Amino acid sequence: MSDEPTRIFGVETSCDETSCALVADGRHVVADTVASQVKLHARFGGVVPEIASRAHIEAVNPAIERVLAEADVSPADLSAVAVTHEPGLIGSLLV
Question: DSSP code of 76?
């Protein structure tokens, strides 16, 4: 059995926030980040699905890189990747 901690990288893009986190051993949040879209949708009075999905495309890679750097790990160090499957906006979930 390995002494290495279980590291799960999570990505959440179900609606209008791009979130990533690295969790060790199922309990310890090593690093996390949230890219908010509040300002993008404010003038519409709610979330616009097309705007949300396009903003996720721009935000997801920088968010992933930020969490990996803060946690000082590489993708090879990860045990698993978890993503939001449903419910959510289809364009946002596809990201």
Answer: G
On the question of pLDDT at 86 being above 60, the answer is yes
CB 22 within 8 A of CB 32: yes
Task: Report the distance separating Cα 91 and Cα 51, nearest Å.
Answer: 10
Determine whether 60 is exposed, middle or buried from the number of CB atoms within 10 Å of its CB (0-12, 13-18, 19+).
middle
Helices (H), the chain: 38-42, 49-71, 90-94
pTM of the predicted model over 0.85? yes
User: E strand or H helix at 17, and its extent?
Assistant: strand 17-24
Distance of CA 11 to the CA centre of its chain: 3
For residue 62, give both structure tokens: 């920088």
Q: How many C-beta neighbours within 10 Å does residue 49 have?
A: 14
